[in-house]
Amino acid sequence: MAATLLYLLKANVVLLLFTAAYFGLLRRLTFFFLNRFYLLFALVFSAVYPVLPVPALLPAAAVLPTAMVLVEAAPASASAVAAPVAPFLNWEALGLGLYAGGAALLLVRLLVQLVSLWRLRRTARPTVVYGQPIRALTGPVSPFSFWQTIYLNPVQHPAAELDAVLRHEQVHVRQWHTLDVLLAQVAQALAWCNPAAWLLRRALLDNLEYLADHAALQTGLDRRAYQYSLLRLSHGVAGPSLVSSFTFSSLKTRVAMMNAPLSSTGQLARYLVAMPLVLAVALGFSAARAQGAGPVVPAATSPSPTGTRPASPAQPTKPDNAKAATTGTAKMAAERPAASARFVIKERNATPGIVGAPAPVYYVDGKLNNDVMNTINPQDIAYINVLKGEQARELIGKSGAKGAVIITTKQNQDRADVQAFNQKYGVQQPLAAAPEEAKGVPYLAAPALAYITKNHPEARLLSVTEVQPADGGAPQYRAEIAMGRRAHYLLFDAQGQFIPQ
């Protein structure tokens, strides 16, 4: 799955979890400041959560010992098999394009609303009412505020009602409620296909009105007269849809919240359930994905002297003899692999004590070393052998391990004791490839492997094919990678630099 799609999936799922927790546990509480913090945190956390280094925030899981398994690769056929043609329609790109188009449309609408407010500000006349600077409007428009400015028509309000309106709008201005509104609008635009984004925006706007109503009543306004004012103003002309206005569809709920008794202190426990529950589910999912799947190591492939694609791993060839099956060798080198190499190295997790997944023992230069993964640089390895059956039992006895991995390093491969140990247990050094065989062998340089690992961390490297450009330039190397059930192709030059297609 593309990184962008994975980001969108995680962000929208977490936003849905926060919304469900709010409507299920917190919506009816009168802790309006806590609800404001919860809703803002939900919007911000949902956006940044997919890019958080979640495994670094959690205790490291125990790493299972890794067993190297040498698998004989099938030789390339003389008649090259045609590579599968990539699908004509890229559904991932099409889905991302539709998603981006919807988000862009809503962002443009938000921009148009901001421009409309800017024009309204230019036409409104600045004045002062009861010591409060405002922008005076003309016509029967319901009062509203945006940023640090209150907009209303002083002529259409009686004195008592005008005082209540100003106190209400002053709360919006003092507490910077416009920031909440803009954040909710942007979140709704970016997650437009998620119903949770629309519900959370509506909940945030409602909660801001609850806050302003509660604060206005705390200044000494008569509750009943204030509610009658709301009812009268609800029949007026609504202000711009972007702003917090006196008129909105849930007026009945707004009055009910003013008349509801204050939530008891014991109800605070709901916050101790809602937020940690959502965070635990979100972080737990990411930790399970990161630690359970483990790092994806591109599978090495056997090079082909003819420059053709090797046989599929699903069709392994039969070993030439029993000795090749038990003591096959694989040379791990930093540079270009030899043409005579017939084995690839794969990795699997082995859990001691579980039937079917025994852990082998490791010997490095004739010495037991089961921490080889942390102490040996792969570039320092000259060759590797695997002992099984009687050969392994002769070396390790009845320790319970199924097999032994013999690693010989470049630095010590000529040492007398290392050669004596290898000769005793039948360790064979791979034959060097002839110079003429090494010519034209497909390979990937280190920068190419680093590019694949960074940009396609979940992909598997299937094959490498040398291709000749139509203009007769330097040969290029096409890497076939598998992402899920689909094959993709990447092109690199001889130095391993990616070539866009």
From TrEMBL:
The chain crosses the membrane at residues 6-25, 37-58, 93-112, 268-288. The keyword Transmembrane helix applies. Keywords: Membrane, Transmembrane, Transmembrane helix. InterPro entries: Beta-lactam_resp_regulator (IPR052173), Peptidase_M56 (IPR008756), Plug_dom_sf (IPR037066). It comes from the Bacteria. Residues 139-258 form the Peptidase M56 domain. Residues 295-329 are annotated as: Disordered. This is Signal transducer regulating beta-lactamase production, contains metallopeptidase domain.
